[in-house]
Write a structure and sequence with these properties.
41 strands; binds calcium ion; 24% strand; alpha+beta
């Protein structure tokens, strides 16, 4: 704290100075004190303290996005403030349910009531603004339940990547946050472990019957963190409780640093008080974020940077474009007016249009003192945008294959022991099974033939059937419309071997279609219908990071052996790690599979005729059976519920797509009639969701159909333009718990197709909306969301299966900006572990292949 000296020699001056100082202190004091704003969080310039604006939602349990959160100079560095039952909670440790939230504007305080049903344990937290700090107090009406005494505490979690290597002081003792977890642990009997989510277990105790519990790195009553970094500095003290600092990464790579105080046993009333004072840099203004395309621009396209500004930042009148010449000299090429767009959530937005600059070259944008990195204007900038995805990301995600790249093995052949019939059960990745399994197999019986083909879902290693259906369809659409002959991948189904950057004479995309179809046909043939997923049976191998081939032991599970015991012939083990097939029948999923099989039979004809025939057989059978099942099980209520579900559920109503694809595969007119019966009603009811299906039909339809579709395309063009009013970026921005890249890509693909077939209605300028967003023109930062070749500054970390290395798999597409209520968009690029903003999925990344292929195709059209 800086002390103010006063001048004792000249009283008149002293009085004047004192008066000035008084006003200064009063003014800065006002500016610095935390206020409770209309959005119901505590705010001063540089500091936002949120109290359960985002509650634990139960879906994937502790997503590290909830509780008391602090956004510190624009970065959400602190979250998880709540009564918790563990020193360093993992994702599947119990989270409290928020049962009430009261905001008291008069007393500048927010109170939340929390409950653990599993332990009949209620608590209340009251957060009050006091000057520059908040007081956090925990109240109990009944003492901590006996089973939780010494375990329940108040926790607050700190983002490791923003605190590591920074200094901290605990009760005057100096220390530094470690870059990597290497503190100390003890083990304790499992009987002392608080329950985990739905009784699952996050750990394999190797038969010891003990769990690992981290020890604190420091304890005391006052901690000041990041004394060396004003943006992150925070002081926390408690006079009535001991503060303990832990490293959550000791148990799980996605853990945070945790500060906690154990709640006292046998006490009620106000049982614990912390004072938390995040440092606010005086007069701090967030640096402008200049959004632009990191891949660059072609000369003739519109070029508009969107600049995100602190609401307190004064708007400049102009921005400029500078060119880096071939001799390394720079010159100002263009200076243009800044145009206001206005406020959107937390920030203010302006635009800088430099479309008039068409000369190829290397450029950067300057706005005030902020300069961007350089980017290209050139007709070739988009030519490589899908290469990393098709050549690297997709083959790495081929399941049941050994995948090699140069000197590196990405993974060995996974799941050699195959898949067991899942019993009726609950599941940690949201795949409930039951009440019936709908198969001839007994629970835990091996279902033969499923360990073939298919693609890993995302950052995990399961085969999500719905996603894999999308994958095959995405590849087929790309293949049929753009016919990419690119061959950079060696695929041998016989050797179960994939080698990157080794052409083998077959277009890769055909090999990807084949690989996806092999698994899906096997499901239909072996099970009789589609499994919802082929996934992990135990939680402690679901969160696996590393070589996919080491998730299971490759040996058939034999319950007559002891855990970890291997049979004398080396083929069976007593470790229950085999994957499961979740088989409860869903006729809607079967219908989607039927659609995909019809298309696959067409695409594979002439390349793998046997597989093409098997796919067609399954398509016809599944369509008939699934349609009958849906019709036979209908009650009046079901019909309405199903209609609602179809309109809202992300795929088209009825079976019109299936009919369309079957018509494409067989040429039988009855399928076409069925399609036409449904499409117009679907378009009238929900245009944005069904317009893509209508566009997909154009190659099969006559001119009259295309004319009839025209007014719908005109309406859709209005829909495209409506986004210019909704946000400064002109695209649909998702506000859900998973950032909206699928929705954005869908939008981009549909805009591209609408322009392709109706260029007089949907103008070419519209196709750049989604590319701009993906490649850097978006809130929070301006990095490309695609880990791709071609971008000057792609994102550096993603939630892939190598996330523990703070790395990425080339070609991955991040979901993008995660919205945190009430007004914060976020995409961490130094912390990969939040899947809602950083996890690429197989369905999303193959959607990107269609988007990129159609986009390149349109950009290059004359
Ligand atoms: Ca999954
Ligand atoms: Ca190939
Ligand atoms: Ca096994």
């Amino acid at each position: 704290m800086k002390k103010t000296s006063t001048n004792t020699k000249r009283p008149a001056f002293k009085k004047a100075i004192s008066l000035c100082l008084f006003f200064l202190i009063a003014m800065t004091g006002m500016a610095q004190d935390l206020q409770l704003n209309d959005l119901e969080y505590f705010e001063c310039q540089g500091v936002n303290v949120l109290v359960f604006s985002n509650s634990f939602n139960g879906g994937f349990n502790d997503e590290k996005n909830s509780g008391i959160e602090i956004i510190h100079h624009g970065v959400r560095t602190i979250q998880g403030g709540a009564v918790r039952l563990n020193n360093t909670p993992e994702q599947w440790d119990l989270v409290p349910k928020m049962t009430a939230r009261k905001v008291d504007q008069d007393n500048k305080s927010i109170e939340v009531s929390l409950r653990y049903d599993d332990y009949d344990f209620d608590s209340r937290i009251v957060v009050s603004a006091i000057g520059k700090a908040v007081e956090i107090a925990v109240f109990l009406d009944k003492p901590v339940p006996e089973a939780l005494a010494g375990e329940a505490g108040f926790n607050l979690e700190f983002l490791p990547s923003q605190y590591w290597q920074k200094t901290f002081v605990m009760d005057g003792r100096l220390n530094r946050f470690p870059r990597y977890a290497a503190s100390q642990t003890i083990t304790r009997p499992n009987s002392q472990k608080p329950k985990q989510f739905k009784g699952f277990k996050t750990y394999d105790d190797r038969g010891t019957n003990r769990f690992v519990d981290p020890l604190p790195m420091e304890t005391g009553h006052e901690i000041i963190m990041a004394t060396d970094t004003p943006e992150r500095m925070i002081r926390i003290n408690s006079t009535d409780a001991e503060l303990k600092l832990y490293d959550g990464r000791m148990l799980a790579q996605n853990g945070w640093y945790v500060l906690r105080s154990v709640l006292p046993a046998n006490k009620t009333g106000k049982v614990l008080t912390w004072t938390v004072e995040p440092h606010a840099i005086p007069n701090w203004i967030r640096e402008p974020n200049i959004g632009f395309s990191q891949v660059g621009y072609i000369p003739e396209q519109p070029k508009v940077a969107v600049i995100e500004l602190d609401k307190k930042d004064e708007v400049k009148t102009t921005a400029s474009l500078w060119r880096i010449k071939d001799d390394g000299q720079i010159e100002k090429t263009y200076e243009g007016k800044i145009m206001a767009w206005g406020p959107y959530y937390k920030y203010n937005y302006v635009k800088f249009d430099f479309s008039s600059v068409k000369q190829p070259g290397v450029y950067y944008i300057q706005y005030g003192d902020t300069k961007t990195n350089n980017f290209l204007i050139d007709k070739s900038v988009y030519t490589k945008i899908t290469d990393a995805t098709t050549d690297v990301w997709i083959p790495i995600h081929m399941n049941h294959m050994y995948v090699n790249e140069g000197y590196r093995t990405w993974h060995g052949e996974p799941f050699k022991e195959g898949y067991l019939q899942a019993p009726p059960s609950d599941h940690f990745d949201l795949h409930a099974q039951g009440p019936t399994t709908d198969t001839k197999y007994k629970p835990y019986e091996l279902i033969p033939g499923l360990n073939i083909g298919g693609f890993f879902d995302a950052g995990d290693f399961d085969i999500e059937t719905g996603s894999n259906i999308n994958v095959v369809q995405n590849f087929i659409r790309t293949w049929e419309l753009f016919n990419p002959m690119r061959d950079e991948t060696f695929v041998s189904q016989k050797q179960r071997y994939v080698d990157l950057h080794r052409p083998d004479g077959t277009p890769d995309i055909l090999q990807f279609i084949e690989h996806g179809t092999l698994n899906l046909v096997a499901q239909a043939e072996q099970i009789g219908h589609m499994a919802s997923t082929l996934s992990n049976s135990i939680l402690d191998n679901y969160h696996h990071l590393g070589d996919a081939a080491s998730i299971t032991d490759g040996l058939h599970y034999d319950p007559s052996l002891k855990p970890y015991e291997v049979s004398s012939d080396g083929k069976r083990s007593g470790t229950p790690d085999d994957m499961w097939a979740f088989t409860t029948r869903d006729p809607r999923l079967d219908l989607r599979a039927a659609t995909m099989f019809a298309a696959a039979s067409r695409a594979l004809e002439g390349y793998n005729d046997d597989l093409a025939q098997r796919a067609l057989t399954q398509s016809k059978r599944l369509m008939k059976e699934a349609t009958d099942l849906i019709n036979n099980n209908k009650t009046v209520n079901d019909t309405q519920a199903e209609e609602d579900f179809n309109w809202l559920g992300g795929f088209d109503a009825g079976n019109m797509s299936t009919n369309l694809q079957l018509y494409g595969a067989t040429g039988e007119k009855s399928y076409l009639d069925n399609f036409e019966k449904q499409i117009w009603k679907a378009l009238d009811k929900r245009l944005p969701m069904n317009i893509q299906t209508a566009l997909d039909a154009i190659p099969y339809m006559n001119e009259a159909y295309k004319q009839k579709l025209r007014p719908y395309i005109e309406k859709y063009n209005d829909y495209i333009k409506s986004f210019d009013q909704q946000n400064p970026y002109g695209i649909p921005i998702g506000l859900g718990n998973w950032a909206g890249v699928n929705m954005v890509l869908n939008f981009g693909i549909t805009v591209n197709y609408a322009h392709l077939y109706y260029p007089d209605i949907v103008k070419k300028d519209e196709i750049y909306r989604v590319a701009n967003w993906l490649y850097g023109c978006h809130p929070y930062h301006n990095y490309s969301f695609v880990a791709t070749v071609g971008a000057a500054r792609p994102k550096a970390v993603f939630y892939g299966n190598n996330r523990a290395d703070f790395s990425f798999i080339p070609g991955n597409v991040a979901p993008g900006l995660l919205f945190r209520h009430p007004d914060h968009f976020e995409n961490f690029d130094d912390w990969p572990f939040l899947w809602g903003q950083n996890e690429g999925t197989i369905a999303g990344n193959t959607q990107y292949v269609i988007f990129g292929s159609s986009f390149k195709n349109l950009v290059n059209e004359q």
